Amino acid sequence: MKSYLDCIPCFLRQAIEAARNVTADGSIQEGIVRDVLRMTAELNLDRPPPFVGQQIHRRLRKMTGVTDPYRAAKEHFNRLAMDALPEFRVAVRRANDPLLAAATYAVAANAIDMGISGAHTTPDVGAALKQADDGALLGDWGNFRAAVADASDILYLADNAGEIAIDRLLVEELGCERVTLAVRGAPVLNDATMEDAIEVGMQDIVEVIDNGSDAPGTILSDCSESFRQRFNNAGLIIAKGQGNFETLSNAEGNLIFLFKVKCPVISRHVGLPLGTLALIRKEGSQPLHHPRRLNRP
Q1: The whole model's pTM is what?
Q2: Are 120 and 127 in contact (CB under 8 A)?
């Protein structure tokens, strides 16, 4: 997916919020914003938005000397999600369709996002997770179930900290023995890294790998060779979050995207309202299934 002119204000907002998050030094904040203004003046709109996000946060880390500016926020959201997990696990076990219930919780948790207008506070997160109770997942559920049943191995691309704890519900329903979980290779925004996977105990139930990249998405050309091999050989890839959708919607492979629509650009691109919990499948090299033809499960 390409970037759009409407992405530029979001890049600037993200730079300002990120700068304020890690330093009170106004000169550093100003320097970061000026850098982003210069970058956007030369922006190649054919690149996906996470490419620009990667450049912004590399600059932020360099100017502040802070390796993981969102570490405290990520730890907070991990704890919050782990505290909620037992209640949600009971709800999944009692559901008529546990796989559907687990997937809905996992997508609702995609709201925990500090890169765009997602859930940033404890009340926001609680409200977002309650959306899962509405059975609001929109997508071709029968196709998803069939793809999962046919897959001998599944590569699960995680997105954010906190969210990764709720992903446990879906991973457990998919079957831990055939799932490999992939996280970011280095800190960026509040995206989940190996440290977050360990904090929520994912390494105890599945193999966890990192993609070797610090992009807030999956830019395959920027990922490690070992990750690309796992990606290319995977029977089924489940990609969480808008960043993974933005970077992989044109990729080859048997891909299923699970994310909450949190951005007007994405909303227009996929033809779904803001706030939708979306399931979109792209099989092989065929065109992405148009969301307007998706059926509510």
Answers
A1: 0.90
A2: no
